[in-house]
Amino acid sequence: MKLENLTPAKGATKKCKRIGRGEGSGKGGTATRGTKGAQARAGYEHKIGFEGGQMPIQRRLPKFGFKNPTRVEYKAVNVAAVQAVAEALSVSEINTEDLVRAGLASKNDLVKVLGNGELTAALNVTAHAFSKTAVSKIEAAGGKAIVIE
Predict the structure, then answer these.
(1) How does DSSP classify residue 17?
(2) I need a surface site. Which of 7, 15, 50, 125 has the fewest CB within 10 A?
């Protein structure tokens, strides 16, 4: 097989509809644009959200809600998941890189450890934030909760 021999599968491609190429084509004259008006002219572009003169939906509906500009978005990771990662890697210290390698967070995520689940091993867990229950469970198991500044 060579690159020059490759062709699309049968039925995968269609011939383009040749519009505005004379009356004999059946698509001549107005070239399927109807008659007159801005939409029949070359270079016509409607505004985003334009609904043919009808009041657009973004103007019909009222404004509502609030977006907090200073909100900090954390990726939640439970104590049970931290325990599972520690067992899989057989380590006593867990940091955000370990959680990224395990697929629990992305590289740029801020990680917050939550207290759902049980922790049996004494682990030193390093993350951006902890819930109170997570800190109490980590310290009860004999580990430390270290906050990244």
Answers:
(1) -
(2) 15
- Other Cβ atoms closer than 10 A to 94: 26
At CB < 8 A and 24+ separation, what contacts does 64-73 make? 72/110, 73/110
With a cut of 90, say whether residue 62 has pLDDT above it. Answer: yes
Q: Are 129 and 145 in contact (CB under 8 A)?
A: no
User: Residue written as tokens 């030193």?
Assistant: 124
Tell if the pTM clears 0.90, that is, is over it.
no
How long a stretch of residues is the chain? 149
pLDDT tens-digit series, residues 93-141: 999 999 999 999 999 999 999 999 999 989 999 999 999 999 999 999 9
Is there a contact between 85 and 50 (Cβ–Cβ < 8 Å)? no
Exposed (0-12), middle (13-18) or buried (19+): which is 28, by Cβ within 10 Å?
Answer: middle
Answer yes or no: are the C-beta atoms of 119 and 139 closer than 8 Å: no
Contacting residues for 120 by C-beta, under 8 A, at least 6 apart: 83, 141
Residue 93 class from Cβ within 10 Å (0-12 exposed, 13-18 middle, 19+ buried)? middle
